[in-house]
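Quick one - inputs below.
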Amino acid sequence: MPQFKRIAVVGAGLIGGSVLLAAARRRLAGSLACWSRSAEARAMLKGYGVAEVFDNPVDAVRGADVVVVATPVDKMEESFRQISPGLAPGALVTDAGSVKAAIQAAARVLPTHVAFVGAHPMAGSEKAGAAHASAELFVNRPCFVTPTGAEATAEVQRTHAFWQGLGCRTVECGARRHDEIVAAISHVPHASASALMLAVGGLPGFDSATAGSGLKDATRIAAGEENLWVGILLANATHVAAGLRAAEEQTARLRLALEAGDAPLVRQLLADARVLRQSLDRPA
Amino acid sequence: MPQFKRIAVVGAGLIGGSVLLAAARRRLAGSLACWSRSAEARAMLKGYGVAEVFDNPVDAVRGADVVVVATPVDKMEESFRQISPGLAPGALVTDAGSVKAAIQAAARVLPTHVAFVGAHPMAGSEKAGAAHASAELFVNRPCFVTPTGAEATAEVQRTHAFWQGLGCRTVECGARRHDEIVAAISHVPHASASALMLAVGGLPGFDSATAGSGLKDATRIAAGEENLWVGILLANATHVAAGLRAAEEQTARLRLALEAGDAPLVRQLLADARVLRQSLDRPA
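Output:
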């Protein structure tokens, strides 16, 4: 017998679509339901044949014991409002947003007869949309679970079980700590790669045809869909701005050392960066 | 009959070692000779069995019609001085350095009975050293050839023929223009990735164990060997510093937009960066 009765996914892009495919393959629920804003995505989801596809979010969540809201970060509060009338008493609402404090605040609009426990599976790609969804997207990926501390323990456990059921390794921490961590490992690198691309693109020596793997690697994440990222960066603006300020400072430090012809300092800065970068590849 | 009589490689790390392996596989010369500063690298090169390995640079270049200087950028002038007494009249000296104006100036110490034409094969890796050398490193890689305009046309043609013989696609331009181009597509991204790594490494949310592919990609080149890069960045300091200043400005622009909560501007900056980044993957 499946672990859950009915899972509903609200917003079925890359993440939401992958939740459906993974839940279907792993027989995680008796039935699956979903809604997507885009008619094209809905047609694609019907084609997958794994979930009932609804034309509006409120109908999609009716009768579900687990609801996953996977709309863009800046649409979350609107999604919570839209689904509220359809939510079954006792349902668990979780989400897949890349920021957690802002979404936790937005979730206050949900009815009191449901539980909300935020989550963030660290499984993305610069490819957006249900067309890139995969049943294996979550396998061995870390997933943050960010309770407020006010929830019933059973609801937090249910949230862990749900994301683990899709293949994730879950990690628990508070929403603010989560936002601080993802600023460092994801949002600041993203914003910084975008800024580097803008800077390099404006230099007199820039020529897209001669760019090698160095520039391509350093800016790969800047190819991400801006409509997703604008919401993420703004919802985590305090941490991201602090990180960008640090990037400006370190860049200026290296620039000043170069302008001064200070070889020992340039060498030291590059060596410190190399040691830090090598630590990312070390097995945990 | 091979195209060249004898090729000598001075400084046989990743690039120099790959020149030897590629020249051997493609039977580009009647014989190959080399020198490396490191006894360990010399032992490895002897083990490859493709070239005569010498204990000092001046003996390595005797009798060669083509000499490739592939020592670090900040060691080039010293290498030119060391090999000068051994150079055969009429020999072509070329190099593989990542900057060209500074090396062109350093090459003025070479005797007048040889020709110097600078070159820069865009075939690197964050892995340094002869241990990572490959006979296929240059295949289809762009190689800049940067004559001053004062050389005999035949010498410039010989330089193109040499690098094409290793598998490169050669591109000709002046040394200053070269330096401007590689600042944009290589040196600024490298320095910027190092600065980002230093910044992120100092943030309270940084944890090397949770870093995902975004941060890893954005900082991959910061793992490069600082002893090579300090010379490159300093020898191209004017262009690199201008590029880093642009990176600081674009980062500040994005940060200020985030701090102001200006969603349309954040979206526009991210969209502009995405379009530029996508242009790098477009077939030329």
